[in-house]
Recover the amino acids of this structure.
């Protein structure tokens, strides 16, 4: 397979399987002798790791808009330090979450405003848009049950319902970029669809 730069993102609610599938995909592409760069956020850079510790500290009482801007700073650093150099080398870049997560979580579900976050992301990314976005779609109650205690599930589940439908709406409005995958199945069944979608676009 001929290698060319390709920017691929995984999106989806908490615990939908982004890290699991991104790791499987990275390994599978490496086995095909392709050059791969795998990043995630927040945390793909040293700045990202520091921001991650800020973002998880509740006592800071961060406003939602301030949170958007911190994620934005991390995203820009990740673009400059990791993503752009990798694309210049001709790598396939796998990112766990990108601008679409800010739109869905803080823009739509967090009420900062979809258009406001979209405009900000346009500036922050200098218009860098993924070649392919894989939406791992799942009922929040199923994904939260994989890793959270039952008490938090109902409350967080309602918020994530809104995030989930924001993602599905975005996928519907840009069908050339997005592929929606049913993530409520076994990891290997999900991965078959992930690999199909990726290989058909790399070919
Ligand atoms: N298809 C699956 N079926 C059952 N369990 C799964 C599946 N995929 C992943 N898991 C498990 O569910 C948990 C969450 O998966 P993972 O960390 O990949 O999700 P994520 O989308 O990266 O989560 P986060 O949003 O927190 O980064 C992990 O414990 C993982 O082992
Ligand atoms: Mg993850």
């Amino acid at each position: 397979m001929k290698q060319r730069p390709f920017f691929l993102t995984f999106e989806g609610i908490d615990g939908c399987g982004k890290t699991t599938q991104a790791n499987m995909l990275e390994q599978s592409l490496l086995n095909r002798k392709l050059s791969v760069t795998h990043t995630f956020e927040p945390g793909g850079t040293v700045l990202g790791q520091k921001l991650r510790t800020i973002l998880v500290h509740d006592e800071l009482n961060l406003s939602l808009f301030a949170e958007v801007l911190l994620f934005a700073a991390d995203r820009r650093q990740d673009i400059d330090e990791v993503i752009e150099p990798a694309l210049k080398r001709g790598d396939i870049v796998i990112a766990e979450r990108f601008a679409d997560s800010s739109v869905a979580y803080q823009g739509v579900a967090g009420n900062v405003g979809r258009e406001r976050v979209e405009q900000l992301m346009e500036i922050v990314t200098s218009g860098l848009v993924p070649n392919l976005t894989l939406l791992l779609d799942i009922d929040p109650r199923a994904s939260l049950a994989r890793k959270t205690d039952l008490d938090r599930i109902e409350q967080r589940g309602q918020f994530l319902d809104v995030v989930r439908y924001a993602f599905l709406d975005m996928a519907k409005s840009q069908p050339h970029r997005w592929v929606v995958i049913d993530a409520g199945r076994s990891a290997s069944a999900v991965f078959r669809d992930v690999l199909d979608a990726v290989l058909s676009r790399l070919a």
Remarks:
- The mean pLDDT is 93.
